[in-house]
Amino acid sequence: ANIFKTGWTGTNERTFIAVKPDGVQRRLVGEIILRFERKGFKLVGMKLLQASEEQLRQHYRDLREKPFYGGLIKYMSSGPIVAMVWQGLDVVKAARKMLGETNPADSLPGTIRGDYCIEVSRNVIHGSDSVESAQREISLWFNHHELFCWEECNEHWIYA
Ligand code: UDP
Ligand code: MG
Question: Does the annotation list 9 as a binding residue?
């Protein structure tokens, strides 16, 4: 079975999260991982990588007509990013809430973008916007050897 395309619903839902180059430079990686861990989500894939422009053009293909697209590709390829896959119930939607709005100025305190950044073009973190986007993005950034199904001892304290 193609693990990227099938079966990831309920507590097995997965999302793609990336700490962007500014987040890595500003030493926010630990803080961001901490928030997802404390929430109860499960880390199933993670790596530090330098994104190629080709990968970024794929990743942001829906935005290619936007005026900020060129700057976005340059920003995202300006240094290493931390790519992660997090798993859990409704994790796609929950992660978007944890991130805040696209523009940090519209993001509430308590959200990652609300707490750690100011400008939309330096908003420190990416999160998939739908289950379909998550599947596409996970398969773009990870191969199946880099994703792990592991049994967590805490499961019964996180899910009833
Ligand atoms: N972005 C930008 N200027 C804008 C809108 C977006 O630089 O006016 C950047 C920003 O880094 C954002 C990314 O483009 O995170 C992708 O935009 P999208 O609308 O998908 O926002 P997201 O899903 O990241 O919240
Ligand atoms: Mg988006």
Answer: no
